[in-house]
Amino acid sequence: xxxxxxxxxxxxxxxxxxxxxxxxxxxxxxxxxxxxxxxxxxxxxxxxxxxxxxxxxxxxxxxxxxxxxxxxxxxxxxxxxxxxxxxxxxxxxxxxxxxxxxxxxxxxxxxxxxxxxxxxxxxxxxxxxxxxxxxxxxxxxxxxxxxxxxxxxxxxxxxxxxxxxxxxxxxxxxxxxxxxxxxxxxxxxxxxxxxxxxxxxxxxxxxxxxxxxxxxxxxxxxxxxxxxxxxxxxxxxxxxxxxxxxxxxxxxxxxxxxxxxxxxxxxxxxxxxxxxxxxxxxxxxxxxxxxxxxxxxxxxxxxxxxxxxxxxxxxxxxxxxxxxxxxxxxxxxxxxxxx
Length: 339
Description:
With about 350 residues, the chain is an alpha/beta fold. The protein is built from eleven helices and 15 strands. A nine-stranded mixed sheet has the order 14-13-12-11-7-10-9-8-15. The radius of gyration is 20 Å and the shape is globular. The two termini are about 25 Å apart.
């Protein structure tokens, strides 16, 4: 970054983006300069709360402003690619809501735009990394507290069927439950293990969405294979009858970790008479989720080496999701190409 006093930031899309705008507004090294949304009522309401920002319904007002250093792209999934590329071409760092984009071609286009501007950085709103509980599990894996980890299971239990069968997701030309939901669990597993899978097979269905406008899968299950024979299962449930929850199981040769709605425990013995060891680290800890964006701003302003969600990790998670979507469509095991 330059030696300016503050980073000038803008937010496009004020659903999840409203939280990002509030986060930027309170950051001491940021100036919130623009808010952008197609919904005039939503725009006006947040504008009244954050009066320092200019308001617009046109994304190009934000993207073409030469004074803007950082753009948070939190629009509908189908708009991400064009807005991310345009922001980069206009010399702006990008923090994009997941998924970064929707296709291999779009991913490669964003990669090309970043290579053309090596002074710029990109990160994404993959916020499960901010959860203290999952940080604790990551540390346990790294220290081999569980022994050798051989299998993991991560379930995204959305529990918000209305988001799938109505609204923009139901109207979209293409919607992916993998890109939109499973991506959180994909990134979580890549982060806590420090490893990247090499193959994926997957199944999908739209049983929960039957009778609605949603024409795409509302459920997917992925089986990931790693080079060292570790395996992982990830599921994304768009229409489940279940509280919103991120379930996680980690199986090691010395211990097992279970995070379920019934409780969070470590199992250190196969003897049923032995007590389970409870884990109390924070979950869901929503108050920490802004840290993903804060760490990105800090990396830009203070020239730190990388944010909590580094650019390469965003591309890695996207690559796994693209291969998984291909596996659903083809019914075949797919080798994962990291773009």
